[in-house]
Amino acid sequence: MEIKNYTAPSKFIFLGFSSLSELWMLLFALFLFIYMVTWVGNGIIIIVTRMDSNLHKPMYFFLGILSFLDICYTSVTVPKILENLLQEKKTISFEGCMVQMYFYLCFLGTECVLLAVMAYDRYVAICNPFHYLTIMSKKVCGYLATFSWFVGLVNSAVHTYFTFTLPFCASNELNYFFCDIPPLLSLSCVDISINETVLLVAGTLLAWTPFLCIIMSYVYIILAILKISSSEGRQKAFSTCSSHITVVIFFYATAIFTYMRPISSYSLDRDRLLSLLYSFVTPMLNPVIYTLKNKDVKSGMRKVFLPKAFSSHA
Questions:
Q1: Positive or negative torsion for Cα 92, 111, 303, 47
Q2: How far apart are the C-alpha atoms of 135 and 267, rounded to whole Å?
Q3: Is residue 6 part of a domain?
Q4: Torsional sign, CA 270, 272, 276, 64
Q5: Which residues pair with 14 in a beta bridge?
Q6: How many whole angstroms separate alpha carbon 91 and alpha carbon 84?
Q7: What are the backbone angles phi and psi of residue 91, rounded to the nearest 5°?
Q8: Total domain count for the chain?
Q9: Does the pTM exceed 0.70?
Q10: DSSP sequence for 263-312
């Protein structure tokens, strides 16, 4: 379809909070609280995994990257949301929208692959413990981390290109909180079947493939745990995986549902709520989940932040 006299919008207007305008102060406080807790919680995880030599293991190397990603992709969206809550017109420039979506999808895609890498790490640790440090060497961990970032970068570049080459001639009003693929595609006045196909293919490769790898890893892990004779040994083995399983459920349950279906089935109210869960709530909860369920991380936090108390206790 040929679009004549088309001019790209200079800005987009966010309508995600239009029905809650009277609650702007409460929303501002809520998002600021989420952002601060995300920064503090994930920042603590990064510091502890770097400073405690007992945590210089592949599992915690990947956990540090996960915490960094959580800080990054909330930082791409929340500051702009906070700024717009203080403005009468909640806008973002065309270029700003493109940059926001690119980096948001980059960090989100990287996390998808990284969670599968972390599952593989647990699989090797439990199913092949005697060769764990050989298989998960520093070089291999570096390759796996680099691969996760590479996939995230390529995925976001593809989606950003296919989305922002569309003519947004239907409107420049986004019924959302930030720039994301589904609400942007809904603004186009041309056939978006190619975009939906790209979204489906990329979603299958980036979301379903890692998710299935995680499931397969945990099938083998569970079978290995069941072979452990002592109940204490089984509990210890499972405790090293419980945090990761919880994070995976929170993250994938909402992200896959958002990106793995036709735009025609997109529901504004429901999907905005889902986006809040995996974009803001999950990054805030991840440090809590790993801290509550991981004795090594809790011990590391005491050693780093309460060294005197730790030494006297020891």
A1: negative
A2: 45
A3: no
A4: positive
A5: 174
A6: 7
A7: -125, 165
A8: 1
A9: yes
A10: GGG--HHHHHHHHHIIIIIHHHHHHHHHHHH-HHHHHHHHHHH-HHHHHH
Report the amino acid identity of residue 201.
Answer: V
Domain that holds residue 214: 12-308
Give the other-Cβ count within 10 Å of 285's Cβ. 19
Task: Tell me whether residue 4 is in a domain.
Answer: no
Which pair of structure tokens corresponds to residue 172? 């420049």
Instruction: Answer for the pair 310, 303: CB distance below 8 angstroms, yes or no.
Output: yes
pLDDT tens string, the chain, 314 residues long: the values are 444 556 678 889 888 777 677 778 888 998 999 999 999 999 999 999 999 888 899 999 999 999 999 999 899 999 999 998 888 888 999 999 999 999 999 998 999 999 999 999 999 999 998 999 999 999 999 999 999 999 999 999 999 999 998 888 767 888 888 898 888 888 888 888 888 888 888 877 887 888 889 999 999 998 988 888 777 777 877 777 888 888 888 787 766 666 555 555 555 556 666 667 667 888 888 888 887 767 778 888 888 877 765 555 55
Answer yes or no: is 104 within a domain: yes
CATH number at residue 230: 1.20.1070.10
Question: Beta strand pairing status for 173-174 and 11-14?
Answer: parallel
Burial of 310 (0-12, 13-18, 19+ CB in 10 A): middle
- Within 128-230, residue ranges assigned H as helices are 132-135, 138-164, 181-185, 193-203, 209-226
What are the respective helix, strand and coil percentages of the chain, to the nearest 5?
80, 5, 20
For the chain, the C-alpha Rg in angstroms (whole number) is 21
Type of residue at 36: M
Written as one letter, the residue type at 204 is T
Q: At what angle do helices 231-259 and 282-293 cross, to 10 degrees?
A: 180
Torsion of CA 294, 298, 303, 307, to 10 degrees: -170
d(CA 116, CA 127): 16
Secondary structure (3-state) at 56: coil
Q: Is 192 helix (H, G, I), strand (E, B) or coil?
A: coil
Identify residue 277 by its one-letter amino acid code.
Answer: L
